[in-house]
Amino acid sequence: MLLLVTILTASAIAYNLNPTKGVNLIAVQTTDAQTGAEAHVINPLLVRWEGPYGGVPPFDRVQVAQFKPALEAGMAKNLAEVERIAKDPAAPTFENTITEMERTGQMLDRVQTIYGVFGATMNGPEFQAVQREMAPRLAAFGDQITQNVALFKRIEAVYNSSEKARLTSEQQRLSWLYYTNFVRSGARLGADDKSRLSQINQKLARLYTRFSQNVLAEEDGQFITLKSDAELAGLPQSVRDAAAAAAATKKQTGAWVIMNTRSSIDPFLTYSDRRDLREKAWRMFVNRGDNGNEHDNNAIITEILQLRAERARLLGYPTHAHWRLENAMAKTPEHAMELMEQVWKPAVTRVHEEVADMQALADKMPDKEGAKIKIEPWDYRYYAEKVRKARYDLDQNEVKQYLQLEKLREGIFWVAGELFNFNFTPATNVPVVHPDVRVWEVTDKTTKRHIGLWYFDPYARAGKRSGAWMNAYRSQERVNGEITTIVSNNANFVKGKPGEPLLISWDDAQTMFHEFGHALHGLNSNVTYPSLSGTAVARDYVEFPSQLLEHWLSTPEVLQRFAVHYQTGKPIPQTLVDRIKRAETFNEGFITVEYLAAALVDMKLHLASDQKIDADAFEKTTLAELGMPHEIVMRHRTPQFMHVFSSDSYSAGYYSYLWSDLLTADAYGAFVEGGGPYDHKIAERLRKYIFSVGNMVDPAEAYRSFRGRDPRVEALMKKRGFSTTNGK
Ligand SMILES: [Zn+2]
Fold it and tell me: By the 8 A CB rule, do 580 and 556 touch?
C-alpha cells in the first residue's frame, strides 16, 4: 500500500470556493508588463469560462504576466461583494448572509484555480516572482474578510438565530462551518490582536513560498551524473531509459542522470549495485533544504514554528496542533497521537525483523573487497528487493510487464462504471495547459446525464512539482445554478518512447487508483453549497475515499481485464497474482515506520509550544526518544517537509493518512463481508453516505451510516500485517 506520494490541493478557504455563474464578461484593463503601457485587452483569467460543459478553463490563452492583475481584480471584486453583504440594511438571514456569501468570489476562484495549476505544473522563474509577491497579499486579503466586524456579526446572528431550527441539515452545517471558520480565523479578537494576526499570516505566507522554492531549487539544481556502464550496474532498462531522458534535460551528453526527486531516487536505491553511489544519492536526497547554502530551510522552519505558536496562543489554543485538529475528525492531538503510538511499536518490531532478514542475506553477499556490510539506510530498499525475490519469488520488473499506464486508466474507468455507474468518453474540444494533458467527459451510464470532466496530466516535465495529486478546478453545487465538477489527476511518469506502452510499477498503479479515488469523491458530489462540495472535508477524512479505491487494483476483475502483458496481451498469470498477494504485507515495517516517524515529528513540532526550535536537533532528539531504527530515515525530513511547511494545510496533519487508513481498512471489510468488491448494494451505500455528501455530514456520522458502527483498529493492523497485541 502506498501512503504519501499524494497531495490533495483542494482550496481550503471556505468563502473562496464558489465557481462560475452569474459573472458577466468583464473587460479589465491590464498593464503590459514589458512596455508599461495600458493595453486595453481582456484578461482571459477574468472572463467567465466559456465553451462546452458549462464552460472550461481557458488554459490556452493564459500568460504568466496576466496573473498579478487578475488576482488583484479578483480580490477587489470579492471584497466589494463581501462589503455589500456586510452592509445589507436588512436583518441577517441565512439567505441574505450565508447563501450570499456562497455566491461571492467566483471570479477570484477562477483565477486562483488556474494560478494553482500553473504553480504546480508550469512553474518557472517568472511565475515564482509572482508567487513571492502575491502570497502575502492573498493572505492579507483572506484576513480582511474574516476580520470584517459587520460581516461576522451577521454570520454570528444567523448561527445563533432561532431561525436555524427551520433550516435544512445542510444549511445548519454550513452556518456552523462559517461561524466556526471565522472564529478560528480570529473574528472575535480585538483590533490590536487582529492586526498582529494578519501580520503573522502574511509573514507565514512569505516563509511558505520561500520554503517551497528552496526545496524546488535543490531538487532541480542537484543531480548525480553517471558516466559508465559500471556506474549503471544493477539498473533495469526502464531506470536507465529514465536516466538517459533526464541527462538530456540536464544537457549531460553521453551520460545518465539521477535527479534529486523521489521518482528518480527510489528506483536507483532499489536497484543500483553500486553501494557507494547509493549512499551518495541517498545523502543528496535526504539533505534537501539542509545544506547550509542559500536554499537552507532550517532558519525558515524555526520562524514558521514560532509564528504558528504565537498565532495559536492569540486565538486561544495551547498549541498550533490543538488549533489545527479542533475541526478534524480526530478532534485533539491526543487522539491522533494515541493511534500513531498504537501502530508505532509493532511497526518498529517488524522493522527489526526486516533488517535481520536483510542482514542474513547481505552476510552471504560480501562486497567486492570481500568485506561484510552492515545494513545502512541507503541499503534498505536494495536488500528489501533481494529478500522479496528470495522469499516470494517476486520481481517488481516481472510485475511491471503487465502494468501499462493506459490499460490501467481503462481499468479505473471500468471500476468507476461498476461502483458508480460512470462512463468516460474523450473530450477533445477542451483547451489544456500542456499538450500532454487529456480530458474525458464523465456521464451517467444509464441516464447519459453529464456529470463532469476529468483531466489527466500523467507525465513529468520541467516546472511540474513531483509526486501525484488531484485538483478540483470546479466544484459541484446548486446555489449558482446546476454547476458540474471539473477535476484533474496529476502524476510524474517519465514518458516512454513514442509508440511504446508506458509500463509502471505496482506502487504507481496503486497511486493511480488512489488519486482517482479523490477524483471520484469530487465527481460523485451531490450538494447544494459549494463550500461543502466534494473533497472539501476534514483533512484526516479526505484520504479515506482515495485510499479505499486502492483496494480495487488487486481485484481479479481488474487484473484479468486490464493487467495484460504489454507484448503478448495475455492477462497476468494467477500464479504471479498469488505471489503478489502473499507478499502483500512484505516491507510494511519500513513503509509504516518511515511514514509514522515523519507524522510523529510533525505533531511533536507543533505541540512544542513556542520554544525556539532547531529543526535538525529536534528531529534527532525526538527520533532517539521514539526508538527510531537506525536503518530508516523519515519519509520527509523536516527541512524538505513540503506537506507541513509549504502551507498550513497538512501541518500537524501528516497523521491524516494513518487516520484515514483506519477508516479505509475497516470500510473495505463491508465489501469482504458482503458480496465482494463489486457488490452493487454496498457500492450504493458508499456513494450515498461517503462519496456524495461532501462536508454536509459530520464525518464520524457519515462513517457510522455506511458501516453501521465506528471503525475498529483491528482491520488496520491486519491490513499492515501487524498484531494488535504489541510484539510480533
Ligand atoms: Zn490522497
Answer: no
Q: Cell numbers of 694, please?
A: 461532501
Chain mean pLDDT for the chain: 91
Residue among 100, 441, 515, 588 flagged as catalytic? 515
CA 27 to centroid of chain Cα atoms? 35
3-state DSSP helix/strand/coil percent for the chain, to nearest 5? 55, 10, 35
pLDDT bin (cut points 50, 70, 90) of residue 498 is confident
**Which pLDDT does position 232 carry in this prediction?**
98
d(CA 206, CA 202): 6
Could you tell me the distance, in angstroms and rounded to a whole number, from the CA of residue 514 to the centre of ligand 1?
A: 6
Ramachandran class of 423: left when φ > 0, alpha when ψ lies in -120 to 50, beta otherwise: beta
pLDDT band with cut points at 50, 70 and 90 for residue 370: low
Tell me the CA–centroid distance for residue 391 and ligand 1, in Å. Answer: 31
State the average pLDDT over residues 667-691.
Answer: 97
pLDDT confidence of residue 40: 53
Range with the poorest average pLDDT among 14-23, 337-346, 441-450:
14-23
> For the residues of 529-597, what is the DSSP string, one character each?
SGGGSTT-S-HHHHHHHHHHHHGGGGSHHHHHHH-B-TTT-PBPPHHHHHHHHHTTTTTHHHHHHHHHH
Q: Ligand 1 center to residue 7 CA distance, Å?
A: 6
The DSSP string of 153-206 is: HHHHHHHH-GGGGGS-HHHHHHHHHHHHHHHHTTTTS-HHHHHHHHHHHHHHHH
What φ, ψ does residue 223 adopt, rounded to 5°?
A: -160, 170
Q: From 185, 198, 204, 197, select the one nearest 304 (Cα to Cα).
A: 204
**40 Cα: distance to centroid of ligand 1 (angstroms):** 42
Q: Which of 111, 95, 176 is nearest to 479 (CA)?
A: 95
CA of 469 relative to ligand 1 center, distance in Å? 7
Q: What is the pLDDT of residue 9?
A: 33
User: d(Cα 240, Cα 236) in Å, to the nearest integer?
Assistant: 6
Read off the C-alpha cell for 361: 542475506
The one-character DSSP state at 466 is S
412: its cell numbers? 479505473
What residues contact 109, with CB distance under 8 A and at least 6 apart?
A: 11, 16, 17, 18, 19, 74
Whether 515 is catalytic:
yes
- Distance from C-alpha of 621 to C-alpha of 641, rounded to nearest angstrom: 18
Q: Where are the alpha helices (DSSP H) in 613-707?
A: 615-626, 642-645, 656-673, 680-686, 699-707
